[in-house]
UniProtKB/TrEMBL annotation:
Residues 1-19 have a biased composition (Low complexity). Residues 1-49 are annotated as: Disordered. GO terms for cellular component: eukaryotic translation initiation factor 2B complex. It comes from the Eukaryota. This is Putative eukaryotic initiation factor 2B epsilon subunit. The keyword Zinc-finger does not apply. The keyword Protein biosynthesis applies. It comes from Toxoplasma gondii p89. One of its GO terms (molecular function) is translation initiation factor binding. Transmembrane segments: none annotated. Keywords: Initiation factor, Protein biosynthesis. InterPro entries: eIF2B_epsilon.
Amino acid sequence: MSAPSSACSAAPASSGGASVPKEKLNAEKQAVSSSPNHGSGKKCASAPRGADEDTQFDCLPAILVALTLPELKETFAPLCYESLTFPLLPVSGVPLVVSAFDFLARNGVTEIFVLIKGDEEGWMVKRVVEEHEETFQKRLRRVVKRGLRVTCVEVPTTVDSMGDALRDFSSKYDLRH
């Protein structure tokens, strides 16, 4: 089952290395920006614009891995019990996952994909995200004057590494445009 691809379209990133002549990079930017498919498709409601061509984007997606991997359970064993998982650990009374939303939004992210497992831990994280989303959206509109789209993506309970989680996400969504 394939999920719809993201509505984000990003400007091309150049390598900017010393081995590539500056004229060639400028020619590549010109060719991409004048192509008929550049920037086509659905755009985000209010897209931030950078001062440089390389930082211009219509939508900036982020992937937030909000699941407890086996090595994290061992590392945070005194803090992470059955009722409290790593993504929900409070810092100044705010769960880590909500603090991550705030950080990402303040740095220009317009769409967040939250990777959760399809077990009890995943449902707890999803519930916390949904509970905090309305208040977060209100505060965010006041601070940075735009909304944030949050999508919870369920990965299989058999995922044991960051690579497994990202491969599963990649099979469901395509962020390249």
